[in-house]
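Exam revision sheet. Question 4 asks you to relate a sequence to its structure. Input first:
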Amino acid sequence: MTHRSNESWLTALRGPEQGQALEELRKLLLRGLRAGLSGRVSLERQNILDDFVQDALLKIMDHLDDFRGESQFLTWAHKIAIRVAYSELRRLRWRDVSLEDLLPEDSEGDFTPRVLSDASPGPETRASRNQMMRMMEQMLREALTERQRKVMMAVMVGGMPLEEVARRMNTNRNALYKVLHDARKRMRSALREKGLSPQEILAIFED
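Answer key, structure tokens:
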């Protein structure tokens, strides 16, 4: 595998040597991902790295004209591959979690989302937290629209990546940023009306 200059990579990927250059680049990116993600992807799941590399190659080919030569071509290509890999790993993490799993339980007045349920705190602590969560549930239902509530629970409580929520709701990041911004404003106003601050609420959930 010969060393290529930036110009050589661009010429090869755009010309008759494209097939050979893509295969060479594929092997280099795969080697880089195996090293860079060794602690995040088990040996049993190494085959998914091939999928990440294929997706990265498509993005690289789509954005060849965006490469300005400010770094080595391989450095630029590896960054794209890493971004693709991390994005896919986040998506796979949430694949089996629905937005409904991030919404609160309706049974017995417990507002704690299913995926965040934790039975470890003692009875008094759980009682205080449940009381606060019930109050928060009321505030969320009264102050927010259903869309704002779903997005806030998924992103800010459940920790689901914004890109994944946007994909499931058939929208985009910018639209969800606006939803979250408006939701936070409404929640701050609701807290002020009850004479509470975010710090006071968080203190109840500290270990």
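Marking note for examiners. Residues 101-119 have pLDDT under 50 and may be disordered.
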